[in-house]
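User: Could you walk me through two proteins back to back? I'd like the raw sequence and the structure tokens for each, with a short line separating them so I can tell where one ends and the next begins.

Assistant: Of course. Protein one, sequence then structure:
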Amino acid sequence: GHDWGASVSWWVALKYPDRVRKLAILNVPHPKVMARNLFTNQRQMEKSWYIFYFQLPGAVEKFGSAHNYAWPVRLLATTSRPGAFTPEELEEYRKAFAQPGAFSAMVNWYRAMIQTQPEPLQSFDVVMPMILMWGEDDVAMLAEMADQSMAYCKQGRLIKFPGVSHWIQHEEADRVNALIEELFIA
């Protein structure tokens, strides 16, 4: 999983380790690492300003939808390597953001992250074989959180991608896919 898909993947692997044989995560730290850094690491708090802004009901929807969703589309283009997203792909994202309720649904993941507490778990250790791939030029996540995440991964492998942003699957698709295939075929 990537982004919110990664967060969901981490939690499913933690809650249902008997149902997850292998795990591939892209540019999102272990939930314990994210929580700790989000509230105690000034540099991560600064990078995560948007999470707190997204807590304002209706504000982000109004700003985000202005000028035909120019802001979220611009974020994709400016936080990735040049050329990572083609103009056609950016237009598809714009169309997806404009679907009724879609932008609010996306923002609600961030709201739930702050406003709800997950059920207690027996362990925060990830026991299955897993790979964490991390673009080191992520504007939203400190690269050090990748290293911190490995402390929770009993069979974890960390692959860092220097010069790659949060959008690792777009910028290094062939390499990311090969590593995922290698994990799941092994």
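----
Protein two, same layout:
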Amino acid sequence: MKAKNRLIACAGAALLWAGHAGAAVLLSDNFNSETQGLNYTGFTNWNVTAGSVDLIGTGFFDFYPGNGNYVDLAGSTGFGGTLTSKQSFAVASGGSFDLSFDLGGSARGPTNIVDVILAGTTLATLTLASSAPLALHTYSLHNNSGSALSGNLVFRNETNGTQGAILDNVILSSNSATVSEPATTLLLGLGLAGLILGRRRLTR
């Protein structure tokens, strides 16, 4: 590859890096490292702060085969559960949270209503019929408050019973607003590349 093309390729790579510099995964949980159980409370990343939940899946009340472990958001006590992250998450002003998760119907019981709450903001209230498939849901929460936004991630099954909605594959990330330094570095790099190319033309 010629020197000019190498410079252009490096600049392109730097641009891609700058575009993703602020992204950070804050939480990623598919529940597969947990031990299954009814009225389960031993989660690594979560507290059950109301009601109860069951951790079920492969070989144990497996209503969605091939998905490993997952959470039934209404445990065997008959009360809808509230699953709250142990960690509180924060994002700077101008940044955003990005959340994705799989949520499905109970596959054998009533319709369930689930609230999804992040940093005190209700992102969604979802109604899932028993037959609703385990499907991907994605949400973003932009912080325009002028100050840092922080709080826990909460999934709350409003419907009481022993057959709740099914939760799996939770991923929370943040995109910081402070990504200007890589972009500045890129501009400086492009300026230096231009000077080098200009000097080469003058010395030919």
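The first strand starts at residue 23 and ends at 29.

Let me know if you want the two compared in more detail.
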